[in-house]
Specification:
The chain is of the alpha/beta class and 208 residues long. Helix content is 29%, strand content 18%. The chain has a single domain, classed as FAD/NAD(P)-binding domain. It has helices at 12-20, 65-71, 105-119, 139-147, 151-156, 160-166, 185-191; strands spanning 5-8, 25-27, 32-38, 41-46, 49-54, 57-60, 75-76, 79-80, 93-95.
Length: 208
């Protein structure tokens, strides 16, 4: 059976990889959004439904670090560690583009081609050069990485307020990090099976 290849992202890196990997499935907005990943399965939100897309090879070519974190890929300064062909520390999982530091569309496309050539067993045209990590990783960087968006998108959406509020927390507990993208509750409900049997009303006797 042919290997099932899934490419996350339809930017320069994703398109360049897909041009060489004709059998690959592309997962990208607005048609579908990659929500979560586990070994061999990518969970997506598509037309209001949640579906699991099986894969043998996954190419992450979009700023969705949470997918790689969920799969256990090693990172450094919030960038995945990859080799010269874009392989991460997890077998069958590749990364390319802005996620590994590509500064231009041309560089992202070149990295996408290198990854595709490696998957096809061809000699790559060069090497994936991982860009230098930011000098300082702040709260906004962590929030952006966990949500799979850019800091500009955070500011445009007003999410920077969350980071600002975190600085004024009175306790010392870290902000919990969950490697998944928020999705509509209705989509989760649609994924559920049969309704559980009804239970009697629970009353807290201390409040009665």
């Amino acid at each position: 059976m042919a290997e099932r290849i899934v490419i996350v992202g339809a930017g320069a890196a994703g398109r360049a990889a897909a041009a060489l990997l004709a059998q690959a499935r592309i997962v990208a907005p607005p048609e579908a959004t990659a929500w979560h990943a586990e070994p061999g399965r990518l969970w997506i939100l598509e037309r209001g439904r949640i579906d699991a897309v099986p894969f043998d090879i996954l190419v992450v070519a979009a700023p969705v670090l949470h997918l790689l974190l969920a799969l256990g890929c090693r990172t450094r300064a919030w960038r995945p560690e990859v080799d010269a062909c874009g392989r991460t520390s997890v077998a069958g999982v590749f990364a390319a583009g802005a996620l590994v530091g590509a500064a231009t569309a041309d560089e992202a496309a070149r990295q996408g081609r290198i990854v595709a050539q490696a998957i096809l067993g061809r000699a790559p045209e060069g090497a994936v050069a991982v860009g230098a990590p930011p000098e300082r990783v702040g709260e906004d960087d962590l929030l952006a990485a966990s949500l799979g968006v850019t800091k500009v998108a955070l500011r445009d959406g007003g999410t920077v307020g969350i980071a600002a509020a975190a600085r004024h927390r009175t306790d010392a507990e870290p902000i919990p990090f969950a490697p998944a993208t928020p999705i509509p509750l209705a989509a989760l409900a649609a994924r559920a099976g049969e309704r559980p049997p009804p239970r009697p009303l629970q009353i807290d006797e201390a409040l009665a």
